Amino acid sequence: MDxxxxxxxxxxxxEAIAEIIVKMGLKKLPLLPAxxxxxxxxxAAVAIYEAEVDKHQRPKDSP
Length: 63
Hints:
Elements: H1 3-28, H2 35-57
Helix pairs in contact: 1-2
């Protein structure tokens, strides 16, 4: 995937994570993660997605 798409996907996922965590709040969660933690969570999610895209685009006879 191109860098621009990856960056946009990371931003959008981070926004979604932050929104959900804020809505759940401390009543449901033991602590609110730092912004950097949410950024890493988004990066991890996109990395997993990229790996799946790569796997799907590989020719069927490749390992």
